[in-house]
Amino acid sequence: MKRVAGRMAVAVAASLTAFGAAGADLEQVYRDALSYDAALAGARAALEAGREKLPQGRAGLLPAVNLTGSSSWNDATVNTAAGSASRRYNANAWQVQLTQPLFRWQNWVQYKQGEMQVALAEAQYQQARQDLTLRAAQAYFDVLVAQDVLAAASALHEANTQQLALARKSFEVGTVTITDVHEAQSRADLASAQVSAAESDLAVKRHALLVLTGKEPDALKGLRKGVALSRPEPADLQAWVASAENGSYAVQAAQVAREISDREVERNRAGHLPTVDLVASYGNNAVSNPLANFARSDTDATVVGVQLAMPLFQGGAVNSRVREAAALRDKASADLDNARRTAAQNARQAYLGVTSGLAQVKAFEAAQVSSRSALDANKLGYDVGVRINIDVLNAQSQLFDTLQKLSKARYDTLMAQLKLKAAAGTLGDEDIRAINTLLD
Question: Taking the alpha carbons of 378, 226, 366, 411 in that order, is the dihedral positive or negative?
Answer without folding.
Answer: negative
